[in-house]
């Protein structure tokens, strides 16, 4: 097994090594790590078979470790109050010159841990990841306690099963597609960017896949079986699933491949990335998940500009949208089109069909319309 990249490449800091990180605890120490960096690397190695998860977990653990080191603290000395301070820090990293800056590779000399304050949803996700890290290090005997175990927990009752709102209604989706078609196409390079964006939106919407799944896919993952076309997707937790390729998606694929100078349909085992970087003709290089996010985000921002003058609420929604909204939109629109709930659940590879039920917005619309039958006054009342 290859070793993961260093947790803190080139930051010039050293972690404090302790003779007994358990500080006298009676529980057995189940890992060899004798300092915070080594302990976190051991935890991260548990996710080497899931690159996307590893990237996110590494980012959040590194941020916390840099924050703690900046205050001369080790993980085992952090208490609940410290994590509350860190939560507030994530919402406003200060001093900004030390902590925030443009997105750069982590080995860049001017790399910063943040590009700006985190949104509430990102802060919540960061704390969930760190909670998993603290629990692992506590269970391993490296820490005496988990300071995030006291975190106020929200009920998983009604709110957990509430319908998801991060999707586009059909009218808004049409506006997004209009913005896509209005991308500049004056130069050859702009045309290539347009063709790639067009293919990417077809791919994300018609399949409902995640951007990380697109980034790791090749043309050879799309194959024919019994005369039907399928896309074999490597998903979360390295789980493999087969997604039907519709005629619309197959036509969009043939158009994109023709633009790349390839045959209309992929060959078995073809290693060409499913979505390529725009470089030289005949050069096929994988697109990163971040690049996919930025391409989609550009189209959303263009659509937001169309609504900003007369519908600021809708413009704000479009500005907040991400690639994952396309997965939610795909699921919602499949159900609206009459695709059976079980089929949508299988296409999205949900572990539970109850997860898929959150996309049944049409049921709520029908219930809302039916409720209008209740009136304060009977229609036959006369003055």
From TrEMBL:
Membrane-crossing residues? none
Molecular function terms from GO:
DNA binding
Q: Core-binding (CB) domain: from which residue to which, for each copy?
A: 38-138
Q: Which InterPro entries match?
A: CB, DNA_brk_join_enz, Integrase-like_cat_sf, Integrase_catalytic, Integrase_recombinase_N, Tyrosine_recombinase_XerCD
Disordered as annotated region, ranges? 1-21
Question: Where, per UniProt, does this protein localize?
Answer: Cytoplasm
User: Protein name, please?
Assistant: Integrase
């Amino acid at each position: 097994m290859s070793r993961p990249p260093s947790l803190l490449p080139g930051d010039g800091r050293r972690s404090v090594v302790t003779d007994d990180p358990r500080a006298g605890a009676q529980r057995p120490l189940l890992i060899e790590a004798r300092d915070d960096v080594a302990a976190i690397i051991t935890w991260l190695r548990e996710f080497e078979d899931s690159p996307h998860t590893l990237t996110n977990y590494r980012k959040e653990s590194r941020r916390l470790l840099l924050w703690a080191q900046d205050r001369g603290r080790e993980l085992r000395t952090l208490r609940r109050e410290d994590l509350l301070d860190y939560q507030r820090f994530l919402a406003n990293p200060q001093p900004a010159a030390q902590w925030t800056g443009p997105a750069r590779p982590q080995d860049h000399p001017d790399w910063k841990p943040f590009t700006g304050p985190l949104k509430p949803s990102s802060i919540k996700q960061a704390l969930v990841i760190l909670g998993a890290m603290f629990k692992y290090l506590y269970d391993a005997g490296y820490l005496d306690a988990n300071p995030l175990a006291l975190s106020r927990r929200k009920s998983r009752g009604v709110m957990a099963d509430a319908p998801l709102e991060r999707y586009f209604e059909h009218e808004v989706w049409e506006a997004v597609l209009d913005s896509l078609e209005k991308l500049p196409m004056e130069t050859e390079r702009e045309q290539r960017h347009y063709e790639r964006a067009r293919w990417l939106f077809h791919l994300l919407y018609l399949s409902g896949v995640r951007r990380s799944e697109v980034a790791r896919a090749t043309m050879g993952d799309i194959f024919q079986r019994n005369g039907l076309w399928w896309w074999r997707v490597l998903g979360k937790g390295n789980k493999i699933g087969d997604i039907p390729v519709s005629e619309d998606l197959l036509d969009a694929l043939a158009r994109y491949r023709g633009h790349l100078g390839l045959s209309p349909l992929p060959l078995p085992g073809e290693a060409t990335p499913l979505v390529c970087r725009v470089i030289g003709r005949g050069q096929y290089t994988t697109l990163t998940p971040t690049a996919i996010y930025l391409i989609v985000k550009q189209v959303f921002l263009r659509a937001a500009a169309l609504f900003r003058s007369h519908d600021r609420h809708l413009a704000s929604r479009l500005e907040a949208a991400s690639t994952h909204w396309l997965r939610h939109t795909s699921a919602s629109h499949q159900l609206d089109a009459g695709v059976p709930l079980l089929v949508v659940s299988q296409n999205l590879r949900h572990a539970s069909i109850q997860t898929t039920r959150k996309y049944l917005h049409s049921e709520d619309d029908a219930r809302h319309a039916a409720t209008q039958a209740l009136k304060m006054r009977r229609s036959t009342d006369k003055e």
